[in-house]
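thought: fold this chain, then report.
action: predict
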Amino acid sequence: MFKPHVTVACVVHAQDKFLIVEETINGKALWNQPAGHLEANETLLQAAERELWEETGIRATPQHFIRMHQWLAPDNTPFLRFLFAIELSESVRH
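observation:
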């Protein structure tokens, strides 16, 4: 049975720049959007807000849904990612 890992990610735009975070996967440093897995009893928006907070210290609510895409990790693990957009105002601090 097909059971993909459900994840969310945030494309964060502020002051003509995009926010990316550094993460380490299998000992290799990579750049990514703030992202992570959906937890039990959590909506997609709640997951996006939580991941943004955990990874950046920024509290913000996604304003737009961008897309959903399916992909396979190098080890053939299936993922289903929901991508959201966040436009930060200059007043947002972390």
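thought: worth noting. Residues 1-8+43-65 form one domain.
final: tokens above.
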